[in-house]
Amino acid sequence: MAIQLLDHGQSTPLERLVDDYLISCAARGLSPRTDEQYSYSLRDVFLRWCQSEGISRLDELDRRVLDRFTASLLSRRNRYGNPISKHSVHTFIRPVRLLLNWASREGEEVLARPQLPRREKPVRDVLTRHEIERLENALPSERDKLIIRIFGDCGLRLDELRGLDAKDVIRTARQSHLRVLGKRSRVRDVPIPPHLLRRLDRFIESRPLERDSDALFLSLRQRNGEYARLTNMGVYQVVKDAARRAHLEKTVYPHLLRHSWMTEMLRGGMNPIQLSIIAGASPEVIGAHYAHLNKDDAYDAMIRALSSQVRAR
Q: Residue 191 belongs to a domain with what CATH number?
């Protein structure tokens, strides 16, 4: 996203500070979605509130002022007249905290940071392996079945799956993997189970020659005479269609498949650090997945570890 700077002849010192921080974020190569979210939170939410309060300088942001900002967010209403969620409040406040942390590192005097209101950890549902099979079996085309299977067996994010090219299916003598372009343009290798690799090979080989795009998953209809890469909304609709056809009562979406895969890996005894590397997620995010694992899961994992030690003696 191109950073649109304010007119510094008319902007306040606080607005110029926000401009400098967003330029710093752009220079770090954050994803366009992150850039947009930071820009919206800082300019359209935070600076607009500061303007309404007559606040124009960093040294005016003390604890009381920032508490008023947080309180104003908690009192906001959505278009249906309901209070916005605490998750949304966190989304607006985090960029402000990051801005102030950055300003402090730059030598500015920062008096306080806004508080993050407490929120209950959401209890995420998960899909069982049987339910993922139901999703796949309910779909008519091999393209759509493979989308569900890659989500279910490799735990990719929606953007990562959509961005796959045929050449990203890497085959070696020892193992095969998907070469994935993840967040912040970080490339990682995700192992492919043998049965899935065979299906991907058949799928790639069977594609009509006129579909010369590099994309692994293409739209089923031509656009401007070409078969384009499947869009994010197209992938999302595949998952929603699978849930509808399979008559699942759960709310199913692409990230739920990733979450279910990560849960299955942890329950199966995978080391969280290994999972962090394969999933392209921070250890803090991985740790959050333990919240919905019960005591039986922890007991089983410990017994497996102890049993392996006994066998090694």
A: 1.10.443.10
Q: Is 186 left (phi over 0), alpha (psi -120 to 50) or beta?
A: beta
**Segments forming the whole domain that contains residue 42:** 13-105
The C-alpha atoms of residue 192 and residue 200 are separated, in whole angstroms, by: 10
Q: Number of folded domains in the chain?
A: 2
**Residue 259, in any domain of the structure:** yes
**187-191 and 176-181 beta bridge pairing:** antiparallel
Exposed/middle/buried for residue 4 (C-beta within 10 Å: 0-12, 13-18, 19+): exposed
pTM of the predicted model, to two decimals? Answer: 0.67
Q: What is the rounded CA–CA span in Å between residue 298 and residue 133?
A: 26
Q: Which of 245, 185, 210 is nearest to 218 (CA)?
A: 210
Task: Work out the mean pLDDT of the chain and round it to a whole number.
Answer: 87
Per-residue pLDDT reduced to its tens digit, 269-287: 888 888 999 999 888 778 7
